């Protein structure tokens, strides 16, 4: 796995690089600016980019903008965004083009090495990894008149785990239920969100994006 890291905090940047190299992963470039990040993506053609949300010169959304641009230039690029705080507008902006190969994690999660590496491998393998704290905070901001109000508490719990990027088996393990029970909950979620079966739409991704978009508009 070839990785580019874009993070303006030198301690975090080099710490993540050392951690990944210790795991025998190939960190091909590290940088502290969005323009240098895009240049590194063009030059090294990495499999995964780890990108800070806030970067120079204004420390607002440069990292997100650069990540979106990198995905436009290289559609197969997996991106794991790191943020110090929960910023749902940035999460949904990044996910608006599709949730595959995308992750959004709080920086504090890097210290929990197993969880951080799990998220990295998940996005590299084509999945989604949304920090559970991000999902938890978004869940509390859902509007009362939302379509999500149709969901039962357990169905909302399952959808929140889907938003983290967890698969059915992992969800079943967390809830201490069978895979069949999880499948039943997900079918009900699709029905209540009016997501009919179709070959052209990934209903799982659509449900998660609707969940994130609805909380963003609150």
From TrEMBL:
> Among its keywords, does the record have Ribonucleoprotein?
no
Instruction: Give every HTH luxR-type domain span.
Output: 144-211
This protein's UniProt keywords: DNA-binding, Phosphoprotein, Transcription, Transcription regulation
Q: Tell me the superkingdom of the source.
A: Bacteria
- Can the keyword Hydrolase be found in this entry's annotation? no
Q: Name one GO molecular function term.
A: DNA binding
A single Pfam family, by name? GerE
Q: Which parts of the sequence belong to the Response regulatory domain?
A: 2-122
Q: Which GO terms describe its biological process?
A: phosphorelay signal transduction system; regulation of DNA-templated transcription
Residues that bear 4-aspartylphosphate: 52
**What is this protein identified as?**
DNA-binding response regulator
In terms of InterPro entries, this protein maps to:
CheY-like_superfamily (IPR011006), NreC/VraR/RcsB-like_REC (IPR058245), Sig_transdc_resp-reg_C-effctor (IPR016032), Sig_transdc_resp-reg_receiver (IPR001789), Tscrpt_reg_LuxR_C (IPR000792), WalR-like (IPR039420)
The major lineage groups are: Bacteria, Bacillati, Actinomycetota, Actinomycetes, Kitasatosporales
